[in-house]
Amino acid sequence: MRPMNPIGGFIAALATAIALAAPATGAAQLPDETPVHRLRATRPELEQHLSQLRLLAQSGKLGKLSPEWVRAETSYVVRRLEEGDFRVGDRLLIAVEEPGGAGGGPGGAADRNAVKSPEQQLTDTFTVGASQELTLPGVGVVSLHGVLRTELEPFLSGEIARYIKEPVVHARPLISLAVTGGVNKAGYYTVPADAVISAVLIAAADRAQR
After folding, report:
1. Which of 158, 169, 191, 188 is nearest to 91 (CA)?
2. 57 and 15: one domain?
3. 64 lies in which domain range?
4. Beta carbons within 10 angstroms of residue 178's beta carbon
5. pLDDT tens-digit readout, 35-81
6. What are the pLDDT digits (tens) for 131-164?
7. Cα–Cα distance measured from residue 95 to residue 152, given in angstroms and rounded to the nearest whole number
8. Which CA distances in Å does 91 have to 38, 125, 133, 149, 190?
9. Closest Cα partner for 149 from 122, 175, 130, 117?
10. Domain count, the chain
């Protein structure tokens, strides 16, 4: 028998406790699998989970859950909603399309020596600073305080639109994963937050021969 996932066990217990604590009519129900611990949880998902946690705490009917766990889970969700997902050292991949779809790829010596357009300057990998800020060329300092990963692209589009007319912005948060064990290329890999794990393993090359 496979061991139970600890987080999955907590989620199941939380769902049961809320079902017992909720009023008979109009009761808010926690889904079987809450997405709040996913990297790309949305603000409505977090807010819904927070409301259910507070309802549970007020009822006092915690079932198999401890008061400490409910408080810790509530603090986690509140902190994520208020502070956002980005911390110092996080890396973001940003690409801003050229007007009319003009390409920004490498060319001859003239291309390499040409002055970069604002869109080209903003197409790069950027690192989050100590105050949850990004420093973007031609834009300046942009605070990411309170921004979730799922809000990054529309948020940056709005900030860049203050300096570039109707920009088309693509932004993806990157995370570092450690790959160890039976692979030929163990180490740290920087991948998008929504990357499929199997793709990361392929990047680490074939499994070592047994």
Report:
1. 191
2. yes
3. 6-83
4. 8
5. 678 888 999 999 999 999 999 999 988 888 889 999 999 999 999 99
6. 999 999 999 999 999 999 999 999 999 999 999 9
7. 13
8. 18, 7, 11, 12, 9
9. 175
10. 2
